[in-house]
Amino acid sequence: NIEQPKLGVCTSVSNADKVKAAGFDYIEDGVQRLLVPQAATPIFGDKLVDALAASLPVYAYSGFLPADMKCVGPEANHEGILAYAQIAFDRASQVGSKIIVFGSGRASRGPEGFSLEQATEQFIQLLKKMGPIAAEYHIIIAIEPLNKNECNLVNTVQQAVEIARKVDHPNIRVLADLYHMVLEEEGPESILEAGSLLVHVHL
């Protein structure tokens, strides 16, 4: 038997009843909207109550990092990102979620004149540190390739797969977003080549 993939909608958990009525299986909310890693625990506590009472589970999250939390370049703040990520992973696990999508184009964009090779290496090193923290909370990080208009770091599924292989951690995986794939003229063969590294898809 082949298990059918679960289908969800990227929206606030407050829309869970509407999403369920439309026949979907889960919600993909926003890290900054629901998990609020930069907010005090009581603020998250109220959101947690709502999420646990919702008619659909919050399976995944997008909107991971704020724009000013730079992943690469001279202003890269890996220590700050990892502290933020630990709070996000802890809170996601309390909700019962599984996936956090790592696109965050403005945070991941390499500054003008900065070596793309060096930026990619910085990103790999960040993910190598992030993987064990994610594992502690049973969270999978899905690297999201974004088209060149949104980010200059990871633009194709193929690039995301190469990065995930270099990171070599079971909690660092890959997402395919058909919108970005079309803009980058990347064909479906990349999805097949990603194999078991592919854990999540945006349509």
Quick structural summary:
Helices cover 44% and strands 16% of the residues. The protein is of the alpha/beta class and 203 residues long.
Plain-language structure description:
The protein has about 200 residues and is of the alpha/beta class. The chain has nine helices and seven strands, in the order βαβααβαβααβαβααβ. It has a seven-stranded parallel sheet with strand order 1-2-3-4-5-6-7. Helix 4 runs parallel beside helix 6 and helix 6 crosses helix 7. The chain is globular.
Annotate the secondary structure layout.
Blueprint: E1 8-10, H1 16-21, E2 26-30, H2 31-35, H3 41-53, E3 58-62, H4 78-95, E4 99-102, H5 105-108, H6 116-136, E5 140-143, H7 157-167, E6 172-177, H8 178-183, H9 189-194, E7 198-202
Number of helices: 9
Averaging pLDDT over every residue, what do you get?
A: 97
* Overall spatial form: globular
What is the spatial order of strands in the main beta sheet?
A: 1-2-3-4-5-6-7
Portion in strands: 15-25%
The ordered H/E elements are EHEHHEHEHHEHEHHE
Instruction: Report helical residue fraction.
Output: 40-55%
Rg result: 17 Å
List low-pLDDT spans: none
Total strands: the figure is 7
Structural class: alpha/beta
Features:
single chain; 203 residues; alpha/beta; seven-stranded parallel beta sheet; 44% helix
